[in-house]
Design goal:
By secondary structure, the protein is an alpha/beta fold. It has a single domain, classed as 3-Layer(aba) Sandwich (Rossmann fold), CATH 3.40.50.1820. The protein contains eleven helices and ten strands. It has an eight-stranded mixed β-sheet with strand order 1-2-4-3-5-6-9-10, sandwiched between helices. Strands 7-8 form a two-stranded antiparallel sheet. Helix 5 packs across helix 6. The longest helix has 19 residues. The model has no long low-confidence stretch (mean pLDDT 97).
């Protein structure tokens, strides 16, 4: 079953798609999928949509959503996009999940791709609902990654001065200065923040990734103190042409994680 829902966030509306298997019942794990920079809930080459369908067919509940300003959500990418805003959006999505009786007993597993991985890693689980995290090619050094690779130094400096930038990384997006200034102001440290988590973490990164350096995921793995696994595969940043392999990696590891760490959930899938 697939259902579209609206979730309030930042005085606007988040567009989300809920996937539930026909046999969904109390205690079934729910995965919340967080897309990356300039992405949406369908994903790069349908990466997120295809993952959601794959997981639904294997008995999991899945919620994928667009951040405010992205995809079908309300807002404007150029002015509403920032890590602070995205983190607030995830908090509001999880608040919505927490208010649904059908998910009261469901362990929540967060998944994030690229900058969505940073959002997942830095999420403060004050409600204690997150049972595990999965990140694919996570941004772990945001200032360096965006300044040196994604935006580029010239546009980065222009943005710091308060100017609008556009057409970065061969994409036709426009972005005002709030995004870059937010990265500098908050100095997000996904690796340091994640080192305080106590839940299992699966990290997947491609050897052919030219967008987000593999070294960041390797350092994340080294510093993470709880149950963890790092899978390095022959992928680019979006597993182009290898989504079946990508999905199977997640499916196999997720089944093992649920069986080992969430035995009550394993009994209902």
């Amino acid at each position: 079953m697939k259902e579209h829902i609206w979730i309030p966030s930042r005085n606007q509306r988040i567009s989300a798609m809920l996937h539930l298997p026909d046999n969904f019942r109390a205690g079934t794990p729910l995965l919340v999928l967080c897309h990356g920079f300039t992405g949406n809930k369908v994903g790069y080459n349908h990466l997120t949509l295809n993952l959601a369908v794959f997981l639904e067919r294997r008995g999991y509940g899945v919620l994928r959503f667009d951040y405010v300003g992205s995809g079908d959500s309300d807002g404007d990418f150029s002015v509403d996009t920032s890590v602070t805003g995205w983190r607030e959006d995830l908090n509001n999505v999880l608040h919505w999940v927490g208010g649904q009786k059908q998910f009261a007993a469901s362990p929540v597993i967060l998944y994030g791709h690229s900058l969505g991985g940073l959002v997942v890693l830095t999420h403060k689980d004050t409600a204690k609902r997150v049972a595990a995290r999965i990140v694919f090619a996570p941004v772990t050094k945001p200032v360096e990654n965006f300044r040196d690779i994604i935006i580029g130094r010239e546009l980065w400096q222009k943005s710091l001065k308060g100017h609008r930038i556009e057409n970065f990384f061969d994409k036709g997006f426009t972005l005002y200065s709030q995004f870059v200034k937010d990265l500098v102001k908050h100095a997000y440290d996904p690796i340091g923040t994640a080192s305080t988590h106590t839940t299992p973490l699966l990290i997947i990164h491609g050897m052919a990734d030219t967008v987000v350096p593999l070294a960041g995921s390797q350092e994340l793995y080294e510093q993470y103190r709880a149950e963890k696994e790092l899978v390095i595969a022959d992928f680019d940043h979006g597993a182009l042409g290898k989504q079946d392999e990508f999905q199977n990696i997640i499916g196999q590891r997720l089944a093992g994680l649920v069986a080992h760490s969430l035995p009550a959930a394993a009994a209902v899938i």
